[in-house]
Amino acid sequence: MAGLNKLIALAGRRSDGALATWQRLKTQCDEALTKLSLLKQHRERYREMLRAGLGEGMPALSTMAYLGFIGQIDEVVLRQESEVGRLEQACERQWQELVETRREKRVYEIVNERVASRELAAALRRAQAEIDDLLQRVGKGP
Length: 142
Fold this sequence. Notes:
The structure is a single chain. The chain contains 2 helices and no strands. By secondary structure, it is an all-alpha fold. It has one domain: Helix Hairpins, CATH 1.10.287. It is rod-shaped and about 120 Å long.
């Protein structure tokens, strides 16, 4: 059983490490999603400002500046969407690893429980046999 306890402890450490890694990735993913959302909000705000300016007769130079800036934001949005996708995939892979390490640990725990149960049952049978033996000796008398 000592070997199983070592396996359980090792699987527990692996599970804890996988959980910590997943939590870090999840935080990074959430932060990247927040950043992406903010970028999209800024892009929309500048598009609205451009529309309003065009409605008021904005000069061509200003229009070009707005379009250039919106284009730059679009490029950053595309890169950020790619980063979010990469992080989401990494997060999913890490989650699967976490599930597997937890499953492995639980298997070792179940095996350990079964071994302990068998050992307890064997000890009970031995104790019962000893009691039966004593009762037989007492029943025969001197």
